[in-house]
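Listing S7. Sequence submitted for prediction.
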Amino acid sequence: MKNFSTSSSRLLAAALFCGVTAVSAQAKPLVCEFKPNAPDSHTVVKGDTLWGIAGTFLDKPWCWPQVWGMNKEEIANPHWIYPGQIVWFDREAGRLRLGNKVGGDGSAGGAGDMRLSPQLRMQGLGKDAVQSIPSGVIEPFLSQPLIIEEDELKNAPRIIATRGNRVYLGKDDKAYVRGDLKGGTSFQVFRPGKPLKDPITKAVVAQEAFYLGTLKLDAPAEAGSDVHTFKVQSAKEEMGKGDMLMAMPPMPMQNYVPHPPEMEVNAHVLAVYGGVTHAGQNQVVSINRGKVDGLDIGSVLQLYHRGDTVSDPGGDKGWHGLRDPKVKLPDERVGSLFIFRVFKHVSYGLIMQVTEPIVVGDVAKTAE
């Protein structure tokens, strides 16, 4: 493991013991506790995730960076745990370590001490590294727009005509696009969908987008024109005149370590995906907080059912002098949310654990 190089990292390193609190400058202290029945070790196997391994030892799997003593570089690029390695619980130090078993004669595979094996960290150069979370369910949300914020709609290029006046375009068909490409050559095609409204303020914070396919620039606009010729690379849905373009995003790294957000976050669920109204474990939701609110990829929030406001017929008169004053019931914690894609004001999260179904309006806030 690398030594910490910043004062904040040293603070985390000093706070690694059972029942410790790791303090962020702006967020509430996070209590990280090992499970009373935590095993002495765990052998990593294919299909394991960082979340699952951490959950073997910890009450809060998102405490993973603290108990490993990882610096920010390692948190951003944790391609260093592979099948066959052994995670060892160092009870005396109150942290997890990576190593392999060696016998008393120094041979591997014995029942002796655990020793670190730096060579294994280089094996495969990340290709076979253990992922943070199950990736299959979130892959469409990584590569497709699905959420469009207002500033992205204003000047988006759009299809204005098709070759041969086709109503809909298919693979290898040509389309004429008008607008500023800003140097881009590969684009996603989308159609704006329903607006996403903040459950509390009712203000529109973004729009859902229907992903239709991809276009590649075939011939840029000639001098004096802003009409470009494109060829359809792929067509998931029917696309045609009036549909809009967005530059293809770089494929993001899919191996993120769970961690608390650096700032205090108090969000609400905007939408549930998958054609359902209630979301369970391993389903995706969007929330009304993003980059400007201190969220980044890998942030973990706790999910709560928002407490109802009820009448108290036996209570004192409220400040308005009426009987049956209104009382808000406390929010009830029901699960945890792993943030895997972040926009300016909106984020996607994968429900990792849940005891009751999640609905629009439920609360997602910094873990306590």
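Caption to Listing S7: primary sequence and predicted structure tokens for the chain studied. Residues 1-26, 102-125 have pLDDT under 50 and may be disordered. The helical segments are 7-14, 50-57, 64-68, 72-76, 118-122, 139-143, 150-154.
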